[in-house]
Amino acid sequence: MPRKLGIIAGGGTLPARLVRACRDAGRPVFVLALKDHCDAAALGSDVDQAWIRMGEAGTGIRLLHEAGVSDLVMAGGVDRPTIAGLRPDWRTARFFARLGFKALGDDSLLSAVTRELEAEGFCIVGVHDVLPDLSPETGILGRHTPDESARADIARAVEVVRALGALDVGQGAVVQQGIVLGVEAVEGTDRLLARCRALARPGPGGVLVKLCKPGQETRVDLPTVGPDTISNAAAAGLRGVAVHAGRSLLVDREATIAAADAAGLFLLAIDPEVAA
């Protein structure tokens, strides 16, 4: 019998897609859904599930063991809470006390969470291990292609994102005509694009680049782009979006590519070693 997959579910459609993939493969699945993040309607009520607050690590680990989970994947968006808002249980508080200043960076925190779950006996897998078709190959993914000025902006954005990533800050940047309009931090990509909409300059529009951080734990928190990203990029006046080939996720791949085509935006998967 296939190993049972546990899904720690945040927002968006990814958790439900993982559930469907497990069902199609005849694989048993259990969802540990995060309150105030996971979309109950998208997830549905016909899947084995339990709900916890983010600060209830002790309860969550117990529920995963009781459900017989062997493999574990983290999927879906999560807004990073404050410690006060987290209301940690004893297990969570002990974890943060041990982690200390390393909890300041997203990747440091997620890597520590991964190690903690592995110490509990779970095998951590990536979304792309369950849904390999979500990870784009190098090249143009739609009908539109970047011109030379857009490629220059992509190269500049790659430099910026790699510098940010080395400091464990963010995964994205918007560059227009060589000028950095915005970088992604705790607010996330959608709010970055909303800020850049007011900062756009006359002339050819900018580009959004999203990359993995150097040394990032690729089983969790891969750069993710979906139809909403394309819509927000178009509203910000951008000409296109470039993502990390083989190390990012296109949620609803066909719909994302179709949205880019309809909006007149290029969608490109790049090797940052070549694009920089």
From TrEMBL:
Residues 138-267 form the LpxI C-terminal domain. InterPro entries: LpxI, LpxI_C, LpxI_C_sf, LpxI_N. Transmembrane segments: none annotated. It holds the Pfam family LpxI_C. Residues 4-134 form the LpxI N-terminal domain. PANTHER family: BLL4848 PROTEIN, LPXI FAMILY PROTEIN. This is UDP-2,3-diacylglucosamine pyrophosphatase. It comes from Caenispirillum salinarum AK4.
